[in-house]
Specification:
By secondary structure, the protein is an alpha/beta fold. Helix content is 46%, strand content 17%. The chain has a 6-stranded antiparallel sheet. A 6-stranded parallel sheet has the order 10-9-8-7-11-12, with helices on both faces. 33% of the residues are buried.
Amino acid sequence: MGRQLRRRAVFWVLVVLLLVLAPLFALLAGARPEGRPFWVELSVALGFAGLALMGLQFLLTARIRYLTTPFGIDIVYHFHRQISVIATLLVLAHPIILFVGDPSNLARLNLIEAGWQARTGVLSVVALLALVVSSLWRQPLGLAYEPWRAAHGTLAVLAVALAMAHVAIVGYHVATPWKRALWIALPMLWIALLAYVRLIKPWLMLRRPYEVREVREERGGAYTLVLQPVGHPGFQFMPGQFAWLTLRGSPYTIREHPFSFSSSAAAGGQVAFTIKELGDFTATIKEARPGQRAYLDGPFGVFSVDRNLAPGYVFVAGGVGITPIMSMLRTLADRRDPRPLLLLYANKTWDEATFREELDSLVERLALKVVHVIEEPDDGWQGERGFVDAEILGRYVPEERASVDYFICGPDPMMDAVEEALDGLGVPLGHMHSERYNLV
């Protein structure tokens, strides 16, 4: 990470700390209500901390490139998921401590007889729990992506709005003018971020549309979608990055999905995504027609040779995980890069190896060695069999293993095994770069 990115990273860490700690500083400062037990004040402090973390999620999910660039949006989204669980635990601790300290508080769970002070608090917790449960267990619950995403945003706004109403109705620790100003400023910030995501960003995307130029069928049940900018030059991206794609709809809808670029970053404004049929939306890519409108939000990601300069690279891909790596290889070929490159490419069968013919041609243009690893090879297969493991890696990675960088992309079990194997072979953690398809 360069010096400028390090400064930006420190800046954002300080911003996050300020947003989270400001309500606690407000709680401690100034005159406090007398005669309230310590455990009540503790529960309030935990509730404020949880609410501040809940509001922070609007910033983390706004996809602001100035924020995501120093860390990588995958790290930011991972932090979002983890910190959301912590926020939920802090929020839950608030009523639990009140119930344990004074069991008569359990009567507040009766929403029919309880006042709005209790109703807003209880309903906020219910919305938050529904949000977290549906997010952590979306796939086991069988929730489709687009309905889940609509519910996710609605529940998030509802949980925070009800929590703010609860704080305002209770009235403790927000009685002084400057404390009221703080609790007005924070929701206004959250509303501004929500407006940016739902109104301003889609409007900017509408002004820079793309259209489908071509759809190509590839091996392995994948299709390459080629997009051309309309009325603008497009944007520059680093090879290996990705963007959110909206197809057959307006940017104001929720029909957007993240995909890695498979095209060369040196190809100008035209971009391509190679997408495998794995779900409801991806199964419709082949139905796209030339001239159809599309919109992109990007680029994002730090999985790129341009962000990690080294004298050589080793790429390990599994299945459709070849997509961002193909973008890097195509870009390096267009740049006539002379550095030594190694690609270990794992597939279930030889016929499923996407881009295998083009990889053969790239060997002629780059100092590239390609090793195919086939799980279920046909009779007569002379190459590597099974899975990419420490034994196979040990046969091909350079002897000076810490002198190159490693890029790994594919199914999670494969990536876990490869990272563990490389660690056992003495590859420093800082030289391993992974791209995991679990942003949502």
